[in-house]
Amino acid sequence: MTETKNEVIIVHSAVYKTEYTNKYKNRVKWEQPDTNHIYSYIPGTIIDVFVKPGEKVKKGDSLMILEAMKMHNNVQMPFNGKIVKVHIKPREKVPKNFLMIEIKPI
Question: Which of 47, 92, 42, 87 is nearest to 65 (CA)?
Answer without folding.
Answer: 47
